[in-house]
């Protein structure tokens, strides 16, 4: 058995008295590549913020490496859903990645180690040659890689990405997931996404998030998953490798 890195037990989270997540229990093991799928408003981002310790459960518990999430947030690399950058602010791709190091250590000067990790992260994302570009000179997909490089530069054990492909076209998605699959050799990955069929050839497990969470210990796509995200027909028609449709076990 691989060690459990994220442990969630009977977790309930309400916002202004409205339940967002109800009685959620599942675990993420080391080396997992888990997709959080579900409709808009289903609670994926909320679940991620609970993992990062930015929100706290009303009931139940969530532990990362056996500790409170906020105590170990420096071991998680986070790529948020909406990244706002001021396009008029003349910051280079490399600066953006360096800022990730700053965030981690709350200090005011960069060390050689900072510069080394930044170069390594940019090289991993195949963006080193773009280091001098301003963010507004890069394509959506390239910007996305810079934000992932920023997360990687913090040397995380877990990489958490919230709908990172929103700005990519379909061929871009395949390349992007291929990259994540490579990273998964050394990192545990949590990925919120809508691309159900596409994902099935890359991820190792799936959690369907819609107030409650159904955890699936494999990447096989179920009818509920398709229904849940209103998966567009053209995605299925791509004929990408996918697995047999199955239904959830009967719920109480
Ligand atoms: N800060 C907030 N303000 C307003 N609504 C919120 C807030 N946080 C969570 N919610 C509510 O929680 C639910 C889940 O949202 P979210 O986690 O963003 O879902 P998803 O990421 O799956 O689209 C939504 O119904 C949303 O209205
Ligand atoms: Mg979201």
Describe this structure as you would to a colleague:
31% of the residues lie in helices and 24% in strands. It has eight helices and nine strands. It has a domain at 1-65 and 188-252: Rossmann fold (3-Layer(aba) Sandwich). The protein has helices spanning 44-51, 93-105, 112-124, 140-152, 170-183, 196-199, 223-229, 233-237; strands spanning 4-15, 18-29, 33-37, 59-64, 76-79, 158-162, 188-192, 205-210, 212-216. It is α/β, with parallel strands linked by helices and 252 residues long. It is globular and about 45 Å long. It has a six-stranded mixed β-sheet with strand order 5-6-7-3-8-9, with helices on both faces. Helix 2 (93-105) packs parallel to helix 4 and helix 3 (112-124) crosses helix 4 (140-152). Bound molecules: adenosine-5'-diphosphate and magnesium ion (MG).
CATH structural architecture of the domain at 1-65 and 188-252 = 3-Layer(aba) Sandwich
Secondary structure tally, helices:
8
Structural class: alpha/beta
Query: What is the percent of helical residues?
Result: 25-40%
Q: What is the string of SSEs from the N terminus onward?
A: EEEHEEHHHEHEHEEHH
| CATH-assigned fold name of the domain at 1-65 and 188-252 | Rossmann fold
Distance between the termini: 28 Å
CATH superfamily of the domain at 1-65 and 188-252: P-loop containing nucleotide triphosphate hydrolases
Query: What is the overall silhouette?
Result: globular
Tell me the name of the CATH class of the domain at 1-65 and 188-252.
Alpha Beta
Tell me what portion of residues adopts beta-strand conformation: 15-25%
Compute the average pLDDT.
83
Tally of DSSP β-strands: 9
**Major β-sheet profile:** 6 strands, mixed
Strand order of the largest sheet: 5-6-7-3-8-9
């Amino acid at each position: 058995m691989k060690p459990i890195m994220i442990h969630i037990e009977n977790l309930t989270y309400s916002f202004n008295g409205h339940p967002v997540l109800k009685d959620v229990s599942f675990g993420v093991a080391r080396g997992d590549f888990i997709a959080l799928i579900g409709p808009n408003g289903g609670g994926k981002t909320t679940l991620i913020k609970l993992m990062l310790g930015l929100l706290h459960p009303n009931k139940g518990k969530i532990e990362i490496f056996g500790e409170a999430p906020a105590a170990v947030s420096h071991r998680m690399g986070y790529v948020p859903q909406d990244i706002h950058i001021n396009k008029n602010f003349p910051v280079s791709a490399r600066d953006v990645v360096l800022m990730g190091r700053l965030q981690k250590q709350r200090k005011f000067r960069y060390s050689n180690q900072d510069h080394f990790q930044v170069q390594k992260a940019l090289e991993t994302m195949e963006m080193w040659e773009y280091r001098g570009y301003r963010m507004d000179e890069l394509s959506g997909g390239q910007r996305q890689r810079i934000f992932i490089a920023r997360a990687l530069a913090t040397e995380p054990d877990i990489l958490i990405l919230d709908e990172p492909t929103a700005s990519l076209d379909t061929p871009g998605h395949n390349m992007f997931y291929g990259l994540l699959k490579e990273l998964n050799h050394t990192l545990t990955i949590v990925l919120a996404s809508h691309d159900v069929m596409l994902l099935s050839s890359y991820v190792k497990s799936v959690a369907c998030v819609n107030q409650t969470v159904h955890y699936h210990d494999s990447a096989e796509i179920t009818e509920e998953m398709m229904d849940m995200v209103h998966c567009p027909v053209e995605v299925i028609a791509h004929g990408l490798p996918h697995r047999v449709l199955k239904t959830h076990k009967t719920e109480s």
